[in-house]
């Protein structure tokens, strides 16, 4: 095999490796974003379900702090 061909193949290999490393990092970022969005939705649903209980809890806490 000629030296030029070998060097070209090595450059191609390195180019492909760097491309796939970048693509994988972008994919991880997307997965992280989707995970965070899911967590936010769950928190909002839980707060919505327990809003009455949370409101009364914070009311009691504020009354205790105020000396009531």
Structure description:
With 68 residues, the chain is mainly α. The chain has one domain. The chain contains two helices and no strands. The chain starts with a helix and ends with a helix.
Number of domains: 1
Structural class: mainly alpha
Report the major sheet: none
Uncertain segments are none
**Share of helical residues:** over 70%
What is the CA-based Rg, rounded?
Answer: 28 Å
The general outline is: rod-shaped
Instruction: Report the portion of residues in β strands.
Output: under 5%
What is the residue-mean pLDDT, rounded to a whole number? 82
Number of helices: 2
> Secondary-structure element sequence?
HH
> What is the count of β-strands?
0
Terminus-to-terminus distance: 89 Å
From the structure above, extract its key features.
mainly alpha; 68 residues; 93% helix; 2 helices; single chain
What's the short version?
This protein is mainly α and 68 residues long. It has 2 helices and no strands.
Write the layout of secondary structure elements.
Elements: H1 3-49, H2 51-66
